[in-house]
Specification:
This protein is of the alpha+beta class. It folds into 3 domains: 67 residues, no CATH class; 180 residues, Galactose-binding lectin (Jelly Rolls, Sandwich); 146 residues, Alpha-Beta Plaits. Strands 1, 3, 4, 6, 9 and 12 form a 6-stranded antiparallel sheet that branches. The chain has a 6-stranded antiparallel sheet with strand order 2-5-11-7-8-10. Helix 8 links the parallel strand 16 and strand 17. Helix 1 packs antiparallel against helix 3 and helix 5 packs across helix 6. Bound molecules: guanosine-5'-triphosphate. The site of guanosine-5'-triphosphate has 15 residues, from strand 13, helix 5 and helix 6. GO terms for molecular function: diguanylate cyclase activity. Keywords: Nucleotidyltransferase, Transferase.
Length: 419
């Protein structure tokens, strides 16, 4: 049952978690050229031998950032470029997954195809970026024709590849060759390779890097961890519960077994309890427990007590009788209610004469006892001795018969089996 609930909870938590991480925990880094942490710049091919001219147009309120460009012929790779710099610190884009662009371009192309834009993420690394000149930042590039796409255009950061033309002029050790987006210093938007001489414009309305606060892979790993820890905790708890259940059932059956050997009214052993105690005695003491004497006693005229004072008083008399015997017997002696108003005392390592003396002493104790309802209660006593384990049953019978002889002889007396 608990397992079923735990599994249901985990399944729901996993579903909600995956959905929430995908849709509700996105973080956005917006590039709009307004924040002071960003600086806009127009760049062109002047520095590399061309004569193209790029400039930023004044930005109308709420309007796009516009790079206006005149591509001029006479140079193999003419270009104009809108650069967004972050002078206050490089961007760590590793926790972002996408770049969303609201971007359009205009301008003629050599093959009359739709104009393209090249987006560069340029990263700094002390080993190859020297003093941080833009040409020495590692460019990660994506080329596409934005006017053909629905806006915003969504680019996965995994699609950005290190530009091969840059890698040729900047030979890197193998570990540094791949994409590296932990220190992006400049993001730029450049005219496409097919840009033909003439007037070009790149209009950037907005750019956003989008990601999850927790990377999906990390989140999924966390979920796997959650499942493992939860199921492990369940197994530990279940094992502990099973042990506890077992302990409780052992305790219960012990309690029941004890109850089965005890008389519920007088709280002394019943006939089965006495048998069990005698067996244990023989196991533990063997022959050493002998001679063993047994005393049978039966309350006199008990029926009259019941008839005259009621059953409850009769019960109280039985309880008083059992307590009086218990209080006045040595600890090793076994006391049991044989049935009705009849009790048995088994005395290990006690010869007959000694047992008779004990019975006499108890008979006198009864005479001094304060009985319920001010009653005077006496009993008839029969005593017998077993010299070895084989004689125990016979001794019990003999003591019983002696007790009946005590009744017949007028009650309130002790008679031994040998008498
Ligand atoms: N109150 C009560 N009475 C019990 C209990 N067990 C047995 N008795 C009663 O004990 C009485 C025993 O009566 P009898 O066997 O005639 O013996 P007695 O009246 O003691 O007479 P003698 O043994 O001949 O002295 C019966 O009335 C039983 O109902 C018990 O647990 N509680």
């Amino acid at each position: 049952m608990v397992l079923r609930w735990l599994l249901a909870l985990l399944i729901v938590a996993t579903g909600v978690g995956l959905y929430a991480n995908e849709h509700w925990t996105t973080r956005v880094l917006a590039l709009d050229g307004i924040e002071p942490a960003q600086r806009l710049q127009a760049a062109d091919d002047h520095g590399s031998g061309g004569s193209s001219e790029a400039r930023l147009l004044p930005r109308p309120a709420g309007g796009p950032i516009t790079l206006d460009c005149d591509i001029r012929p006479g140079f193999d790779w003419p270009f104009c470029e809108l650069q967004v710099e972050f002078p206050e610190g490089d961007l760590d884009l590793r926790s972002f997954s996408h770049l969303k662009l609201w971007l359009t371009v205009d301008g003629p192309t050599l093959d009359h195809s739709p104009p393209q834009v090249r987006v560069f993420l340029r990263s700094f690394h002390p080993q190859f970026s020297g003093n941080g000149a833009v040409v020495d930042l590692k460019p990660h590039e994506v080329i596409f024709a934005p006017n053909d796409q629905a806006q915003p255009v969504q680019l996965r950061l995994a699609q950005f590849m290190v530009s091969s033309w840059w890698a040729q002029s900047h030979p890197l050790p193998v570990p540094l060759m791949g994409p590296q987006l932990d220190r992006v210093r400049v993001i730029s938007f450049s005219t496409g390779g097919q840009a033909a001489p003439g007037r070009h414009q790149i209009r950037l309305e907005r750019a956003e890097f989008v990601g999850n606060w927790i990377a999906p892979e990390t989140f999924r790993l966390g979920l796997v961890g959650l499942w493992m820890v939860s199921l492990l905790a369940y197994l530990v708890w279940d094992g502990w519960m099973a042990r506890r259940r077992l302990q409780m059932s052992v305790q219960r059956s012990r309690r029941l077994a004890k109850m089965a050997l005890r008389d519920p009214l007088t709280r002394v052993a019943n006939r089965d309890g006495l048998q069990r105690a005698l067996e244990l005695l023989q196991q533990v003491q063997g022959e050493l427990g002998f001679p063993l004497s047994v005393v049978f006693l039966d309350a006199d005229h008990f029926k009259r007590i019941n008839d005259t004072y009621g059953h409850d008083v009769g019960d109280q008399v039985l309880v008083t009788l059992a307590q009086t015997l218990k209080r006045n017997l040595p600890r090793d002696d076994l006391l049991a209610r044989w049935g009705g108003e009849e009790f048995v005392i088994a005395m290990p390592q006690t010869p007959l004469a000694e047992a008779v003396a004990v019975a006499e002493r108890l008979r006198h104790v009864f005479a001094r006892t304060l009985w319920p309802a001010g009653l005077k209660v006496t009993a008839s006593w029969g005593v017998a001795q077993a010299s070895g384990p084989a004689e125990v049953e016979a001794a019990l019978r003999e003591a019983d018969q002696a007790m009946y002889r005590a009744k017949a002889a007028g009650r309130d007396r002790v008679i031994s089996g040998s008498a």
